[in-house]
Amino acid sequence: MAYIKFKELTKYFNFNRKIEVGELPKYVLDYVLDDENILAAYKTSRDHAVFTDKRMILFDVTPYTRNKKIHILPYDSISTSAVMFGLNRAKLLISFDSGYQIRLDFSRMKPNDKKELRLLYTEITKK
Question: Whose CA is closest to 15, among 95, 100, 116, 99?
Fold first, then answer.
């Protein structure tokens, strides 16, 4: 019997706007459990990210077909992480116990946005 590891998640998202919970589409909220609290939500022109107190939920929408791929990533599966701040941008670099890696880019960041992202990063990494 052969074992082939499925390893596709090495990907990046480029979020450009923080949004309020009320702005999230219903299909996004359907993946948030009743006992979870939403800490923050971000979006691109088509993708969404929701950070709850237990996990991150990433919605990757293919441009032409509009197919959605949903990544649900519990914080307790994070093995290493880093946050990088630039002039008007920031990056979260995350590696998981399974070997998967993901990069979350945040653009158009103001100083207060960076502070909020730092607090979110602290919340994520303490799990």
Answer: 116
